[in-house]
Design a protein that fits this description.
The complex is a heterodimer of chains A (250) and B (250).
Chain A (H helix, E strand, L loop, with lengths): L5 H34 L2 H32 L3 H29 L8 H5 L2 H21 L2 H9 L1 H21 L4 H33 L5 H6 L20 E2 L6
Chain B lengths: L3 E10 L2 E11 L4 E5 L6 H8 L9 E9 L2 E2 L7 H7 E4 L10 H11 L5 H14 L3 H4 L12 H13 L5 E5 L7 H14 L4 E5 L3 H7 L2 E6 L2 E7 H6 L4 H7 L5
Helix pairs in contact in B: 3-4, 3-6, 4-6, 6-7
The chains are: A mainly alpha (250), B alpha/beta (250).
Chain lengths: 250, 250
């Protein structure tokens, strides 16, 4: 048995490295965005503007690379899943990075934000950042269990978002001078919630890339959680007359 | 129409076993592709279906191939009748050194059709079926060798259809053709699959993916995996299949 198509496999490995690099950048943008928002750091905001240009460039480059691989090498099976997943994951990573910048842009006047400090925005930010880290790590390690665990955590984030939203609205109704501060708080929480959604999307793509199983988001939320902890397995063949012979069983 | 049921098929050439315990059911109609690396037994398999291996003295066949429940290798089977019912098209176009008309009329005539009008109808019907009629209708008396390679191959397909087979076997029918001629044959296969059970051996995995409803992967004389083409190319069940179609081994 000989290994074939080395150029093609080199291209796939390069694509993987590019996505991993972009994942690290997206992660850093979220981390810095939160820091800039909470501390009101102008220098970080400027740094994020340049990182935003860079992550956009990387998305374009990876997108172009994926199309080149499809056009020139016609990947199938796990290779096709890998390329199609990369195409989707880079969109999520770009959005994650962009939200990091958006959060930073609201950092001006952070020192005076009494409303922001009343709510667990920092807790939410830490949890969201850890989901993004887990998503990039699941992609690197092709870890379906870790990917499913990210999706499970989305409910906690949704609850935090809802509680911050309701609490901030109440503050704004009670004291109209809080409106500006409250609006920034709501926007920051909303961006964090969206980042978590994109981390979940990446988790879903990792599961599909590794196992070929598509995660049904609505079905996932409907069935009991324990069923998911073991990670997905290859579903039974659905086609009549589908035969598989495993040589090691012979 | 005919389905093909293969039960524990073993084929030897002298001491070398070319097929090892193959079990599969090819449903009637539609296109079934056979893929695998050189020497995996795919041509041996397809040639077993119309007993073409009988002409090789060192060949020994064990097992059953049932067409509509009747064993092709059972006692008292008329091999000529088997090959009348199961047509075959080969890798290189091999028209008879006769006119275009005679290439089609030859087989019906030796099977008893003498009426010229009826023979003319058969020739036209088969050439139309093979999408060749419009290109040759004004020169039916010209030598088949005057046709291009792609036209010669379509003529061979028309010839195979001239005695109303239920199954048509194609052994790498496009490997000697350019991309345009290949596309025409593939379009033709698509047309034929509603009326005939088509089995095609191909070295070209993209061709299998494009034309076949079901695909079987053979390796070292064994049937490794057989199933729906889209499933096999998107999510193969067996690691050997995955490694072969993604070019990691051959």
């Amino acid at each position: 048995m000989m290994v074939l198509r080395t150029t093609y496999h080199d291209e796939l490995n390069r694509l993987n490295r590019e996505v991993v690099e972009m994942g690290a950048l997206a992660q850093e943008m979220v981390s810095k965005g939160i820091e800039a928002f909470l501390r009101g750091d102008e220098a970080i905001r400027e740094e994020l503007a340049s990182m935003d240009r860079e992550i956009y460039r990387q998305e374009q480059e990876i997108d172009r690379h994926c199309f080149e691989i499809i056009a020139l090498h016609q990947p199938v099976a796990s290779d096709l899943r890998k390329v199609s997943s990369c195409l989707k994951v880079v969109t999520d990573l770009n959005r994650i990075g962009r939200y990091g910048r958006n959060i930073a842009e609201m950092g001006e006047g952070a020192a005076d934000r009494s409303v922001t400090r009343r709510f667990p925005l920092q807790t939410m930010a830490q949890q969201v950042l850890s989901m993004v880290e887990a998503a990039t790590s699941a992609f690197v390690n092709r870890d379906t269990k870790a990917a499913m665990a990210i999706i499970e955590r989305d409910d906690e984030i949704d609850k935090l978002w809802e509680s911050i939203f309701r609490g901030t609205i109440t503050c704004m109704i009670e004291q109209p001078q809080n409106i500006s501060d409250g609006a920034y708080t709501i926007l920051a929480a909303r961006y964090l919630e969206r980042i978590a959604d994109h981390a979940c999307n990446i988790g879903e793509r990792v599961v599909f890339m590794v196992s070929g199983t598509r995660v049904d988001h609505y079905e996932f939320k409907r069935v009991p959680r324990m069923d998911h902890r073991e990670g997905p397995t290859q579903p039974e063949p659905s086609t009549d007359g589908y035969y598989v012979t495993r040589l090691d069983e012979k | 129409m005919s389905s093909i049921e293969v039960n524990n098929l073993n084929v030897w050439f002298d001491d070398k076993q070319a097929l090892k315990g193959v079990n599969m059911t090819i449903p009637e109609k539609g296109i079934t592709a056979i893929i695998g690396p050189s020497g995996c037994g795919k041509s041996t398999f397809i040639r077993s279906i119309n007993r073409m291996n009988d002409i090789i003295p060192s060949c020994r066949v064990q097992g059953q191939i049932l067409v509509d429940g009747k064993d092709l290798y059972g006692p008292g089977v008329d091999v000529t009748q088997v090959r009348k019912n199961i047509g075959m098209v080969f890798q290189r176009p091999n028209p008879f050194p006769k006119s275009i008309y005679e290439n089609i009329a030859y087989a019906p005539r030796i099977h008893g059709t003498r009426d010229k009008k009826k023979l003319g109808e058969i020739v036209e019907r088969c050439l139309r079926r093979a999408a060749l009629w419009d290109e040759v209708k004004d020169r039916l008396d010209k030598s088949a060798y005057d046709l291009s390679g792609g036209q010669q191959q379509r003529l061979c397909i028309a010839r195979a259809l001239s005695i109303d087979p239920e199954i048509v076997l194609f052994d790498e029918p496009c490997s000697a053709l350019d991309p345009i001629a290949t596309a025409k044959i593939e379009d033709l296969l698509e047309e034929l699959k509603d009326d005939y059970t088509v089995v095609i051996v191909t070295h070209n995995m993209q061709q299998a993916a494009r034309v076949a409803d079901r695909t079987a992967f053979f390796y070292l004389g064994e049937l490794i995996e057989f199933g729906d083409t889209s499933q096999l190319f998107e999510r193969p069940e067996n690691e050997l299949t995955e490694n072969y179609i993604t070019g990691r081994m051959g």
